[in-house]
Amino acid sequence: MTDARILVVNADDFGLTNGVNAGIARAHEQGILTSASLMVRWPAAPEAAAYAAEAPRLGVGLHADLGEWEFKDGAWVPVYSVVDPHDPAAVEAELRAQVDAFRALMGRDPTHIDSHQHIHRQEPAPKFGMVAAELGIPLRSFTPGINYINFYGQTKRGVPVEGSITVERMLKMLDELPPGVTEICCHPGIAGDTGTVYDADRALEVDILCDPRVRAALETGGIELRSFADIDSHASA
């Protein structure tokens, strides 16, 4: 195992809204963001793809979207649904359709695959692994040799976690980064246009990713920034 510490800083929700796109662009141009995951079904996806075409250092993967759920009154309820995540055939068909949509927008294959609300960690995970393996790209949390850290300000059930979105926490994460390749997932955005309670945290994330103390910590720690496009890794999910 190499002692080098290689970091991919990846933004989820690319293409969700204009404000999310703008936050990702700022964090890439002025901060440490190297990668983003595109939501191909959303109206701001063409704008995101157009920006990526002019930003060759930004790696772009697929943020597969099967739906969204919120924890309410003691149960998970759908905000919207694309397909039944427990139907393997439907999951595979939708995933392949979104890969095709990605190719149409970007003119190439995705550099990696992950999913909205990490749904691929649940029932349809084998289908995601199969498609990622066919493309020879990493699948978040499943590809050996790539560690995963989620920089996020809420619990899985949407409860805010005080002090979780701070420069200090980011610096601690960087200081404790293990040897090898690590993905830090984040959710930057500006303009507050997603209509969710996380909008304020998205703006905070942009500020943190652009903070000069964070850049200095990378240099001091000898941490090398890359995107998934720069990593010689083949999915074996």
Structural notes for this entry:
This protein is of the alpha/beta class. It has a single domain, classed as TIM Barrel (Alpha-Beta Barrel), CATH 3.20.20. It has 7 helices and 9 strands; from the N terminus they run βαβαβββαβαβαβααβ. The strands form 2 sheets. Strands 1, 2, 3, 6, 7, 8 and 9 form a 7-stranded parallel β-sheet that branches. It has a two-stranded antiparallel sheet with strand order 4-5. The chain is globular, with a radius of gyration of 17 Å. The protein starts with a strand and ends in a 12-residue tail after the last strand. The C terminus is likely disordered.
Secondary-structure map:
Elements: E1 5-14, H1 18-30, E2 35-38, H2 45-53, E3 59-64, E4 67-72, E5 75-81, H3 88-106, E6 113-115, H4 125-135, E7 146-150, H5 167-175, E8 180-186, H6 199-209, H7 212-221, E9 223-225
Parallel strand pairs: 1-2, 1-8, 1-9, 2-3, 3-6, 7-8
Antiparallel strand pairs: 4-5
Helix pairs in contact: 1-6, 5-7
Features:
single chain, 237 residues, alpha/beta, TIM Barrel, seven-stranded parallel β-sheet, two-stranded antiparallel sheet, 35% helix, disordered C terminus
Q: Helix and strand string, N-terminal first?
A: EHEHEEEHEHEHEHHE
Number of strands: 9
The name of the CATH superfamily reads: Glycoside hydrolase/deacetylase
CATH topology: TIM Barrel
Q: Helix segment count?
A: 7
Helix content: 25-40%
What best-fitting shape do the alpha-carbon axes yield? globular
> CA-to-CA gap between the ends?
20 Å
Largest sheet entry: 7 strands, parallel
Q: What is the radius of gyration computed over CA atoms, rounded to a whole number of angstroms? A: 17 Å
Structural domains: how many:
1
Structural class: alpha/beta
Top CATH class: Alpha Beta
Indicate the CATH architecture. Answer: Alpha-Beta Barrel
**Low-pLDDT ranges:** 233-237
Q: Mean of the pLDDT scores? A: 92
